[in-house]
Amino acid sequence: MRRAITVVVNGTKQSRDVEVSQLLVEFLRDTLQLTGTHVGCDTSQCGACTILVDGKATKACTMLAVQADGAQVTTIEGMARNGELHPLQAAFTKEHALQCGFCTPGMIMTAADLLARKPRATEDEIRHALEGNLCRCTGYQNIVSAVKRAADDMAATPARATTEARR
Amino acid sequence: MTATQTPYIGQRVQRKEDPKLIRGEGTYTDDVTPAGTVYMALVRSPHAHARIRKIDTSRAKRAPGVVTVLTGADTAATGPLPCFITLPDLKTTKHFPLASDKARYAGDGVAVVVADSRRAARSAAALVDVEYEPLPVVTDARAATKPGAPILHDDIGTNVAYVYPVKGGDIDKAFREADVVVKHTVKNQRLIPNAIEPRSIVVRPDEGGALTIWTTTQIPHFVQLITSLNLGLSQNKVRVIAPEVGGGFGSKLNVYAEELLAAWLAKTLGKPVKWTEERREGYLATIHGRDIVEDVELAAKKDGTITGLRIRGTANLGAYLQAFTPVIETVLHIFIVPGAYRIPAFDCEIVGVHTNTTPTDAYRGAGRPEATYLIETSMNLLARELGMDQAEIRRKNFVPKDAFPYTTITTLAYDSGNYDGTLDRALAMADYAGFPKRRDEAKARGKLRGIGLSSYVEICGLAPSKANHALGVGWGGYESARIRVHPTGAVQVWTGTSPHGQGHETSWSQIVADAFGISPDDVEVRHGDTLEAPGMGVGTFGSRSLAVGGVAVHKAAEKLREKIRLIGAHMLEASPDDVVFEGGKVHVKGVPERAKAFGEIVFQSYLAFNIPDGMEPGMDSTVYYDPSNFTFPFGTHIAEVEIDPDTGTTQVVSYSACDDCGVQINPMIVEGQLHGGIVQGIGQALYEGAVYDENGQLVSGSMMEYDVPKAADLPIRIQLDHTTTPSPVNPLGVKGIGEAGTIASTPAVVNAALDALAAVGVTHIDMPLTPERVWAAIQGVKR
Fold first, then answer.
1. Which of B264, B361, B442, B483 is within CB 3.0–4.6 Å of B78 for a Cys-Cys bond?
2. What is the pLDDT, as a whole number, of residue B535?
């Protein structure tokens, strides 16, 4: 069975006819070819598929595409604006918070949700917010440093922080 | 790029890999979907051991979208999977991608479905009717050696694949003359690697019978080699690309059943074939790691001096020998068991046994974490027996720094070391002296606090080809590199290594930048494509990439440096003896203004009218570097834990590590490798373990049951320090750091936990130290 949906993805309206059983992550990866969102498990543990749905961090493997009808979706591809990296993206590279890079998009999206809710998140809050995102390479230490650094950078440029929070 | 001046070696240069990865623009294998792709799904045995009576594919063939359904009998033309190891008397049997006589572990493939979508393939796989006759199951390696145990491979007639002894010195005398002998049984539990990217493969048939293969691998050249040999294709017709690879840790160091099946199917069907594992499928069908039990006896004098070490071990190989299975708990394990210590007599024997479980193979450290866990927990057992301090028993037995090169009782030639040096700095960083006070404070809060040391030596730089051959590894251990400087001065580097997170593009560009006096930004490093690479690359595993592959890059650059110097001298009309190449220019010694720049000289090498007579034009070099020896990094890690005796929860509250990997090319990358490795090793100590039930079902069969460390598990900052003892083996003085963290951290944490538990009388505990297990150990002593 198919149904027509309209989803705003990274600011662009996308109208498609989709199988009702299609997962949102399949819609992004297979239908829209936005392959920056990854699939690392089938039990919602790894968080590699995390995106923002109406600003909220969501595991795209646990949501149907039809459930996103009418929603605003942001994926990793939508984080940089006009060629300028999101502060989280910049901080991840500065702090060497990625090695193989496979978990990185999901990590950044989860962290974006956290910083929108808690711009001054403590290290402890960051670690707990990232519990649903697995990384096997970094041991998380530099990821936590990167999220803290991004929080500081965003606090230092409030205009940007406000824009990010509204995303 | 934060670094601005040469030398770039040693600087925290930001990674060249990152820009595309942080934007979501990296291409991983599953991101590749050629037009007309069909999808593969495997039918896997639900039984751990069962005769396959009949396979009926008719229902599946009628399912929507199905292209074909094939069994083992139909796919024998793929040829068998490779095992690259030949130990003396190793029992081998042919291992085909699909089992056709019987299934030997839960997850063993028995049929393959190809359909026009991933979902159609998976749905149809459920419609393949397989009639099984379940057979008795054995999952425990020691039980599998007992008379009457079910035999997996009827053609071998035994579950014992190898018996591997290593002996040195007079072991009987060592034990006769010892004042004390401590004994324990050391278990390294089975682990599941869990690279966050699942395995995936895409094979596209091209014109003229060629195949292009994208695959999640650490060894693209071996995938090319085996595919071409097995399928009877000329090697130049098989191009293997390892694009971005999302972590490996040894789990992508194989030529897997699905790779051969997809290649053969693409060739046979004439369509691109794709397969990506589901995580739960991967838990069954991707190799596991560790799984060895060893009875250990350590003999010593009253003053703590070790006199001898005896080990009888049993390694669980799983159902089949994969690419490197037989070498893991033999060569890569036994030889390094003596670790940082002088051990005059040694007697070890490991029996490798098949069981009805997923095959085991290399997992980060591969035999060396098991060795370090064995010796480091034994050292603490001996210290407790003698009432000695953990640091003192280590110092007493360390190979002294003036003894290098040092030949161990197991015949390894340690290149260089200063074990007291890393121990001293680790003790200072961890405030070892202040520990008793912290323990007392914890006690006042009702917590048991312990401190644990782990002083390790590891083997990196695998390997000199002659050593490989002598030890039964069926391929050379060199690495290749090619550097091409274009007429405009643009520099491209090809490496035979195949990184999957290690940052070779960055580190190798630092090496080349220093050689030419240019910026790493002006060096492009390419890897993981057999079409572009030098003839053969060995790949990335065993902490070998820098000490072999990085050195190959350095040597290729040195060849061009010399050519540049000679052309520069010629252009300056000076004697080659009178010029030097430094800071990107060749100049006459003492006259820096009489100079020719790198770019001018390179351009001239292509104009070629003004180069020395007889010299080849161009600026291109290919090097195969075969090291003369392994390299031996070392260090001391110190963990502090607090245990809640009421709940059994163990929390790492402090972690300090001082490592020596020789010269560091990029300390930022070194630290990243250590952070990740340490947490992975803590995973083995505290959280992770594969569990089979009595029927051979993997109970810990998904990320819901198998506890991969999470961000909040270790709410502390790992403290790092280092010393630098260059390796004399290679001109860069480098050793390797990819596995050190994992090797060192597991025993550090368990030693800390046992130090804490000593207060309540617990003297032994097996990993993982789950709350339940720790609590039960405490209760057991109470009763």
1. B264
2. 82
Of B197, B502, B702, the CB nearest to A102: B197
Give the pair of three-digit tokens for residue B358: 């997923």
Which amino acid does the sequence have at B516? Answer: F
Expressed in angstroms, the distance from the first to the final Cα of chain A is 32
Check if A20 contacts B (Cβ < 8 Å).
Answer: no
Residue A159 has pLDDT above 80, yes or no: no
Which of A36, A79, A130 shows the shortest C-beta gap to B711?
A: A130
ipTM above 0.95, yes or no: yes
Residue of A39, A40, A76 lying closest to B23 (CB–CB): A76
Cβ partners under 8 Å of residue B427, min gap 6: B391, B433, B636, B638
Has residue B597 got a pLDDT over 50? yes
Contacts of A102 in chain B (CB under 8 A): 28, 195-197, 244, 246-247
Q: At what angle do helices B740-757 and B771-782 cross, to 10 degrees?
A: 30
Where do we find the tokens 């003396």?
A: B88
Cα–Cα distance, B479 to B248 (Å, whole number) = 19
Beta strands in B486-599 (DSSP E): 491-495, 523-527, 579-582, 585-588, 591-597
Residues on chain A touching B688 (C-beta within 8 angstroms): none
HEC string of B255-286? CCHHHHHHHHHHHHHCCCEEEECCHHHHHHHC
Does A42 sit within 8 Å of B678, measured CB to CB? no
Distance of alpha carbon B329 from alpha carbon B354, whole angstroms: 13
For A14, the enclosing helix (H) or strand (E) is strand A12-19
Q: How many Å apart are CA B711 and CA A141, to the nearest integer?
A: 8
For B624, the 3-state DSSP assignment is: strand
Q: How far is CA B716 from the centre of its chain?
A: 26
Identity (one letter) of the amino acid at B174?
A: A
Tell me whether residues B718 and A140 touch, CB distance under 8 A: no
pLDDT above 90 coverage of chain B, percent: 97
Question: Structure pTM?
Answer: 0.97
Coil, strand or helix at B423: helix
DSSP for B195-244, written as a single string: -SSPPEEEEEE-GGG-EEEEE--S-HHHHHHHHHHHHT--GGGEEEE--B
Please list every residue in chain B whose beta carbon sits closer than 8 Å to the beta carbon of residue A130.
710-712
Residue B208 to residues B205, B222, B225, B234, B460: CA-CA distances in angstroms?
9, 22, 19, 11, 42
Look at residue B362 and give its three-state secondary structure: coil
Give residue B470's Cα distance to chain centre: 21
Phi, psi of B8 (to 5 degrees): -80, -25
Q: Which of B181, B374, B234, B367 is nearest to B291 (CA)?
A: B367
Distance CA A136, CA B680 (A): 7
Measured distance CA(B188)–CA(B321) in Å, rounded: 19
- Using one digit for the tens of pLDDT, what is the confidence trace for B409-453? 999 999 999 999 999 999 999 999 999 999 999 999 999 999 999
- Cβ-Cβ contacts under 8 Å for B359 (sequence gap 6 or more): B105, B287, B288, B317, B318, B319, B320, B321, B322, B325
Indicate the SS3 state at residue B436.
helix
The answer to whether B712 contacts A130, with C-beta atoms less than 8 Å apart, is yes
CB atoms inside a 10 Å sphere around CB B726 = 17
Among candidates B24, B197, B276 on the partner chain, residue whose Cβ is nearest the Cβ of A36: B24
Helix (H) or strand (E) holding B369, with range, is helix B368-386
- With cut-offs at 50, 70 and 90, classify the pLDDT of residue B1: very low
- pLDDT-derived band at B782, boundaries 50, 70, 90: confident
C-alpha to C-alpha distance for B520 and B4, rounded to whole angstroms: 10
CA–CA dist B695, B355 (Å, integer):
12
- Please, how many CA atoms are within 13 Å of residue B34, restricted to the half-sphere of its CB? 19
